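We examine the record.
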Amino acid sequence: MCGIAGFYHKEKDYKSYGMHYRSILTAMHRELWRRGPDDAGIFLAKRCGLSHSRLSIIDISGGRQPMARTVGERTCTIVYNGELYNTAELRDALKKRGWKFETACDTEVILLGYMEFGPGFVKQLNGIFAFAVYDSLQEALYLFRDPMGVKPLFYMECGEEMVFASEIKGILAHPSAKAEVGREGLNEIFGIGPARSVGCGVFRGMREVRPGEWLACSKHAPLQRHTYWKLESHPHTDSYEKTVETVSFFVQDAIRRQMVSDVPICTFLSGGVDSSLVSAVCAAELKKQGKQLATFSFDFVDNQKNFKANAFQPSQDRPFVEQMAAHIGSAHTFLECGSQKQVEMLSDSVRAHDLPAMADVDASMLYFCSLVSKGYKVTLTGECADEIFGGYPWFHKEECFQADTFPWTMDLAPRKELLLDGFLEYLDMDGYVEECYSRSVAETPRWEGDSLREARQREIAYLNLKWFMQTLLNRMDRASMYSGLEARVPFADTRIVQYVWNVPWEMKARDGVVKSLLREAGRGLLPEEVLFRKKSPYPKTYDPAYEGLLKRMVQERILDGNAPVLQFLDKKKVGRFLSQASDYGRPWYGQLMAGPQMLAYLLQVNAWMERYRVKVVL
């Protein structure tokens, strides 16, 4: 994986001030060096500049970027962040059309595919990616993002100039970009966060290329957006047995394809059905090569002593991890994070995301990835299976089903509890959230044959794919890439997502068993105890000392000082909140973010405003 950045202007002549603009490109990829610490490069043309920081995984010696190819008077140049899983098939097809390859990397496949077919070639790609292509003949820049949005790609229109980067920090390294936030951005932070509206970059003027889109910037037309992939709704005609067989094939094929690497791989193993399936397939494939899979699990110091079972987190992971590691014969490492380290990593998590994130959920993942990255550059994870196969409680609870809002945040009261009354009036948080929700529901792909209940089930599934899954994909990308670790997500394969989208709910949760379709597809690969384990999400700490640390930090860094976040907070309300006992079983976002995470989130908002010198424009 890598970091990409650049800029485009249909009238400027960047080369006439080459030294100046090369220094900007260098500054941009330096901000992204954690995504690609192995190499860096820049390209400057009359209308465009491209910058790249590289993490070497495929064709380590031959895949340097920016990569260019010239045919006649046409030169096309690419910067690419991603991994292609059908490289061999596409390369063979291009060879048959007369193209000759100089490297073994997927970057060249994409570049030559673009030169042969144009932007529409992106439809043929199976992978996770964000890339930019500059076409000298057209004097045009094209930006592409993968269908599921696994890899990030932000952009900002600074007057007539287009600036883009893998991460927000890359854009803010450009002198024309400003770190400003208005009402929309503040609603994203306080009303929607740690999620983000699709395509929203929070900062004023900052956008993100939407999943399944490509953008065109040219001298002949203003910025144009094109959708090349979207879900399609239609009747599901396969029998249950055929459906199980198809899902089993897609899942195992996606995992095997995503094992491609010129460096060793590992997996994250939580002991749940999703990560266990990924690990089992990887272990079996490596065993054929005489190799042993390395697996890693995450927990918190003394969590066996402090753990409190609740409806959202019914059991601890370790017993199931031990069982799975023994079952597949992996070389397993148990990683733990202490309370002090979690607190220390909160600000690093902000730096990784360029925004407030999922508090200690993100901070701990950031720490764990930093440890894994000491020995590996590639890991496979079980992310996205719950959003696709219906694993979360809100897929099953009637009150969530009936709620006319996001099911993972049905009550906005905890979000308002600490804010100034005047600020709340300015935000109109309820109105903003309702508008975001209604817009997403209206976009749900429909099928005229659905009953009212089936139509609602599609809405819930669509909300999860477009919102909740994006939040977790963002978390995994930023947490892993901050340490130069590439995290792959086999369940986000478009073949799986599209196929399961149309499978009736009665098959997805047969006989009321959550994710029964995926469980049946995994028979023979996992022990029954793991295959039918009740879902338990990513672990969090229940150490009272952690909450104590947070309370002291809020008191010292926010209430006792001139913290920028104070312009939004009611000190008396915060003081009362600090004196209350936390309710761990009533999350205000998802399944994990309760009272302590509200304090951690406030600290992250404050750290974000300080680090990026955020200017509030009301």
Remarks:
- The radius of gyration is 24 Å.
- Residues 233 and 447 are 5 Å apart (CA to CA).
